[in-house]
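Support case: user asked for a sample of complex input and structure output to validate their parser. Sending the pair below.
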Amino acid sequence: MSARIDISPDPAALAARVAQWIADLAGHSGARFSVCLSGGSTPKRLYQLLAGAPWRDLLPWQRIHWFWGDERFVPWDHPDSNYGMAHEAMLARAPVPAANIHGIECKGSPADAARAYENALRAYYGADTLDPARPLFDVMLLGLGPDGHTASLFPGKPALEERRRWVTEVPEPGLSPHVPRVTLTYPALESCRSAAFLVAGADKQAALRGALGGNAELPSARVRPVGELIWFVDRAARGEE
Ligand code: 6PG
């Protein structure tokens, strides 16, 4: 399926647009709804919006399950934790049942944490094999790093080639913060009805151009969701400022 590009004037408008997009998708779904969150600064604004008016009253919180596409291997209360960021910005401020929050637990080694999260995803999904006709996630949120990485799939790293595991460890990301990561692999990231990249800021221009141009050295350019793919970008990232 081909990708669509949705341009917003600035990061605030971008966050509001994605909030409305998620609210529409979740509102029109009948059963449990799963959202896979990304880390980074761009989505933080989105998470804050979802927990406030008007979206707080629009989202069917009881039916939404929250997952993470990647995690930095630090405790959840560490400032670099993706879980911690989403929790503080949204999950702690909204009526989210605790059982609907599926964070990546940084216990034991990164490899242990990856295995445990893979088991958690399989249990939620109810099977050990991903069926393209029945995606794991309804919404997959993705970020774009200046080096073209997405989730914790960094250029040139072995995690890019992983097709069997759903989750894997990344011992050294090659980018700050220099802590090991745990990341969903392509097969898991791609098992979604809708994937959205959120890209804001002029420092993302080159990476965005490369990703949209299909530069296969950029991990973000290689994401092929089974469902739709939308690039929510702001004008600065698009080079229109
Ligand atoms: C992480 C992220 C990562 C992020 C991009 C973009 O844990 O670092 O999940 O993939 O989405 O680096 O981040 P910004 O929005 O901060 O630019």
